[in-house]
Structure formats: C-alpha cells, structure tokens
Amino acid sequence: MRNRRITAAVMAALLVAGAGVALAQPRGNPWAARPTVEARAGEGVYRAMCQGCHMPDGRGAVGAGAYPALANNPKLAAAGYPLTLIIRGQRAMPPVGSFLDDEQVAAVTTYIRTRWGNDYREKVTAEDVRALR
User: Fold this and answer.
1) Are 104 and 37 in contact (CB under 8 A)?
2) Is this prediction's pTM over 0.90?
3) What Å distances lie between residue 122 and 16, 30, 33, 110, CA to CA?
4) N or C: which end of the chain has fewer CB within 10 A?
5) Which residues of the chain have pLDDT under 70?
6) What is the torsional sign of CA 53, 59, 62, 65?
7) Both ends of the chain: CA-CA distance in Å?
C-alpha cells in the first residue's frame, strides 16, 4: 500500500513537471536554429561534444548506457569509421556532425585517432568529410 502511494506521488510530480516543460518549449520547429560548437581545434570540439559520454581520457563509460572507449581502439584505424559515426550516427551514437562544419569534423576525427594509445597519423581533411556527407 505504501509503495503505491509513493509511486502515485512520483508519477504525479513527473506529470506536473512534464506539463511545465511542455509549456516552456518554444513554438515552431525546435531544430530550425541548431546550436553550433564554437571550438575549432579537435581537442576543443572533443571537449564540447564528445567527452560527456566518452570521458576526458577517451576510456568510455558504463552507466545509463554503454559509451565505447576511444582509447586503444583498433576500429579507428580506418578514418571512414569514426567519420561515419560522427556524421551519420549509429544506434545510441547521435549524428553530431550536423552541429559541426567540415573542418570541425575533420579536426575531432584526427584528434581521437591520435590520442590515448591510438597512433593513426593519417590526417583527416575537410575534403574527406565533404565526400562522406
């Protein structure tokens, strides 16, 4: 009986909170004005867009979801793999490339391929990104 009251109270609070959020949403298309990342260098883009899930040291995380490690990741050997994930997304990885220009995507891809035990020195260029978009 007590659990039902607690559950009902939590559900009521969520409904009230959800209603407040819905009222605060702007009208129109929320994707019309996409935010952009100001950072230009790969490390700055990584800090702004990637480290929240993949962690500052590239080791990934497990919690509410599983975020794969970028450190010592042999899948990064082929530059097309991380480029595709950044631009198009896959499963839980959102397509963050829409928030970045071609130079930023190239910079962050090169950054993750040359850090944390990865030694894939082939630089990714904006032309590589344009070819994939």
Assistant:
1) yes
2) no
3) 52, 37, 34, 8
4) N
5) 1-37
6) positive
7) 56
